[in-house]
Amino acid sequence: MNRKQKTQIAMEKYQTIKHTFEPVWDKQSEVLILGTFPSVKSRENQFYYGHPQNRFWKLIAAIYGEPLPDTIDEKKELILKHHLAVWDVIDQCDIIGSSDSSIRNVIPTDLSGLLEKSSIHTVIANGAKAYELYQKYQMPKTGLKAQKLPSTSPANAAWSFGRLQEEWCRVLKGC
Q: Over the range 39-76, which residues count as b (16 or more CB within 10 Å of their CB) and which as e?
C-alpha cells in the first residue's frame, strides 16, 4: 500500500463531530475544568467523562470526600456543590474515535457567556491537549491563564490514581 492509499484510508476514519451537551455550571462556579472534546462513550452517554475507565468522577469524589456519583444528576450535583464547572475547549472538530492526537479543524467553544455569568476565576485543563488547545484558542479571548493538570483519561496510565489525586487536590483545594 502506498502513502496516498494510507492517507485515503486514514481520511475515511475522520468524522466531523459537534459537541452536543451543555456545560455544567451555575453562578457560584469558581473553577472551570476543561477537557478537550467528549470521547465516544461520553458522546453516547451525552455527558462528561463517560468512559468507565476515566478517573475523573472517582477523583473529584475522593478529593471532596463525597460518594462516587453514578447518575448524571449526581455528577452535576457534585460539581455544583463544590463550585466547579465542567466543559470542553472544543465545540466541533474532525476526530478519529476518541483520539485527542487526531483532533483537527477545531472550532472552539464560546466561553464568554459562562465566564460573564459565573464567578469563575480559575481554569484547569484536564491534560496536555486541553491545555494546548485552551492556550491557542481560548486564553487570548478570556485573558485567564489555565493550569495544566495530568489527564484523568485511561490513556494516561503513567499517572497512578494516588499521584493524580495529589496533584489535582493541590490545585483544587490546596492539599
A: beebbeeebbbbbeebbbbbbbbbbeeeeebeeeeebb
